[in-house]
Write a structure and sequence with these properties.
single chain; 16% strand; two-stranded parallel sheet; 422 residues; alpha/beta; ten-stranded mixed β-sheet
Length: 422
Amino acid sequence: MQTDCDLHLHGYFSGGVSKNMMIQNLGSQAKLKGLHLMATGDILNKDWLQQAKSCLFEENGCFLEKESRTAFVLQTEVNDSDRVHHIVFLPDFNAVDKLRASLEKFGKLDGLGYGRPTLKADAEAIAEKVKEAGGVMGPAHAFTPYFSVYSHFNSVEECYKSMAGEVDFIELGLSADSYFADLMEENHKYHFLCCSDSHSPWPHRIGREFTRIEMKKPCFEGLKKALKEKKPGVFLLNAGLDPREGKYHCTACTQCFQKYSMEDSAKMKWKCPRCGSRIKKGVRDRIMELAKFKEEIHPEFRPPYMHSIPLAEIISIAIEVENPQSPKVQALWLKFVQSFGSEIKVLVDAPVVELAEIDEKIALKVEAFRKGFVHYIGGGGGNYGKPIICDSMEDFERKRIELKDCLDCNTSFKGQKTLGEY
């Protein structure tokens, strides 16, 4: 079955997470989004583990949430001694208990703020313990500038050492896509995961990035088998934000968000002349440092990448309301989702003429989005980029001229596809 998955998020025992982030809410909201397999997040935390045990039941090898029957895979994120974050998937609660017992000596696993534990062990040592517990592990948000494999190492092999052969995937993160990541030859060995890394259960956050995988069943074993198979037809789609919308895509100041070239940043010793704060190297420039290829080359098993924008964000742009969580936006969002079954169906499948029966302005923006009439003011330094959805090709070309001084991160590749091409 084609399984749309969001395989990385956090529970409320991690810092900066919504108090509504509970397994029951994730189950119900996943249905509205159109997701079939969700990650639990934070499964090594004792209190979150107890919530998962109380909310999930096992049926035919799948963990299902009791009310929604949404499938879950047991997952956590860990921070190693090199400040690299990793995603871990585990087969069952016995494996979680086993891994907890083996990692307790490396750091605190329990309590508020310890959903993502920081361990006094490197990636190699943690990967050994994960393998012993029967789990799988790979780099989280592999390109972000603070806590990622490529911010501290030049390769996955350099990070994982003797356990590098056990790594079958990397998570792209919000500031990269397949077209950027595959410029690096090493990455042709790995499947790419697109995940929300969400701190909120609402559908404009969960599934904002997702991966479509062919699985017999939505469960750990199905996921593990898919990760091992490097052949076409297993991973069917990576979907996520345009990298320019990611908050670390461009090299920029971390305080005033002024963007700079790598050459200028080096001359200024990575200190912003406008405000004196630190300039942070962007994902785009870091990938270009490590890139072997200058054009698109993908392994045969790589699926297409679909650039997406959450429906609530499109609605807020259409009706000119700044906050996607405003009652007006959310009321329209719910009306569309209830009419067509899920957010993904509204974004990808529903005929525009039927969308227009609910709201013509929003239907026009969805159609323009599907056709790729979107410019981006690129994000950087910790500030998200901004999509500008144009109403027509003529509007798109006019905005290109009007905003030419702002569209400074618009690196693109000819293979990038719009939603309408799927």
